[in-house]
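Our example copied in:
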Amino acid sequence: MPSLNQVAFIERAVRSVFTQAGVALELLVVDGGSTDGTQALLARLGDEFAPNLRWVSEPDRGPAHALNKALAMARGPVIGWLNADDEYLPGAAQRALAYLTAHPHHVMVYGHGEHIDAQDQPLGHYPSRQPAAGLPGFADGCFICQPTVFMRQRVLQSAGGFDESQRTAFDMELWMRLFAAYPGCIGWLDSLQARSRLHAATITSTQRGQMMRESMQLLAKHLGHAPLHWVRSHVDEVLAEHAAAPSGDDARAQLNQLAAEVAPLLSPADRLALRQWWTSDMRLRLLQPHLGLPVGPDGWLPASAVLRVRQGAGQRVVMVGRHVSSLPGPLEVRICGRDGHRITHIVRQPGPFRLDVPLTGACGPDGWRVTIEMAPVFKPSEHLAGSTDHRSLGCVVDQVQVLA
């Protein structure tokens, strides 16, 4: 169990190990020098579960290094790896050991996993696939939920342990290495084995760009190239988060650098598609550090949208758009700030228009929030009743900027 500043979760993780029935086990916790009270907690748990719990706390070079240190200390023939914020479900170890005993030629077994949040609430099942997916299956995403995995120690030792050059994708790197070295020798348990926790401090949340790069490098190494959808998924997440809460960082420069780094990992066709997408996606073209606007890739603004501007960025926002609604007649644009200040703008006919939105009143802790709503001036005809097409009441945004 690698650990660093997970005092809020590690006791639950440890107890999920020692409530595994019907197996003889030891738990090795390698802590990276936590400063949040983890060491005192481990000392107490070490006394409670002695001699089956051993732990050390000292600086390390990252989680892969911590895992290799634990591997060097391990005495059991089967290794399970649980992060300090994850949990085993009852019977997980017993099911895995029974499988490996019944299948002596298999080197590893895994099963279903479930995502939970910081309060232990279920978030949904991990998108697991059975081993028949093989190496090509990783092109769609890592389909192995890490805490569900149990491996033979001799195989992990002979494979050289964990690749410490990988900062985030060391689990996927190991799975792909084992799939390549031991085809047909990876087992599957059709049962829910573990819970994988998602919260703000996880590698998945804090190092997504690095994880995407490393994963695509692995795919290019094993499969020849990495699919473009890895980039699309990451960019969609970054842009959606920026629209909801502008960070002030130069997200456009960061995404441009990312695109340049991963382009050589793509097939020639995907490299061309990347270039075309990068120049046509209006979310990228409108991206600004202090401003967030939830437009679609084609520039469409929803019929109801929230414009967000960080404090100190400017005094007003100017938006240039085009009314291209499928509805006839004028379009009413209602603008409302957090302080209740309202502006109504009537777009008389399809074509370009300009909105000048003053940032008035008190600024909230998350900056300015301005609601933009659009509605037809006339009563919609019956054939539009129940329509969910946002384009019937929307516009295309061509420019947006914050001015002093």
